[in-house]
Structures are given as C-alpha cells and as structure tokens.
Amino acid sequence: MKRACTLIGVVAIVFVASGLLFGDDKDAKKDLKTVKQGSLPANYSKLGLNDEQKKKIKDIQGEYGSKIQELQDQIRELRKKERLAVEEVLTDTQKARLRELLLEKAPPDREIRSNPPK
To answer: Given phi > 0 = left and psi -120 to 50 = alpha, else beta, which region is 38?
Structure first.
C-alpha cells in the first residue's frame, strides 16, 4: 500500500512538473513574430532557381519582412488608439450597451477587451 501511495505521489509530481516545462513562454512568442525565412514565394520553386538566387530571395524576404512586421505592429497600435478615441465620444450608457452587444457576438470562451465604463 505504501508503494502505491508513493508511486501515485511521484506520478503526480512528474505530471505537475511536465506542465511547467511545456507552459507558455511569452518571450518565445515574441521570437515567433520574426519573419519566417526559408520558403520561396508561390511558384518560385518551379523556376529552377540556383542556390545563390534562393539565398538572395531569402535575404530580401528577411529584410522586408522585418519592416513589414514593424508597420503591422504600428497599424495594430493605431487601430487600438482609434477605437479608444471613438469610445471616448460615447456616454457611459452607450459604452455599457456596446459592451453588451460585443459580449453577445463574442464566442463564449473569448473575453472582450474593451474598457468597461467608469
């Protein structure tokens, strides 16, 4: 009986520890935003490119990809600021009603990130 309890305890500890090892790492998610290099544009693989051409294309994709990512981040931030500025025009009652409408349309597991009325 003692062995069974010990075994169950060890299995439980291993289970909990494995969850910590495979948990979300927010820093790793930031690294995923970097541009994926290694894939050629559509149909380019059928053109018979040599290794030098493939390398140049990947370098170009890397150069422009990081710039595009920065612009997409700026657009996302501007849209967020625009939404907040538009919400500032609303009355508290309208803000509350907007939140209700958004909650009705949102999937059940998704949280609405709109600022609640103050």
So the answer is: left
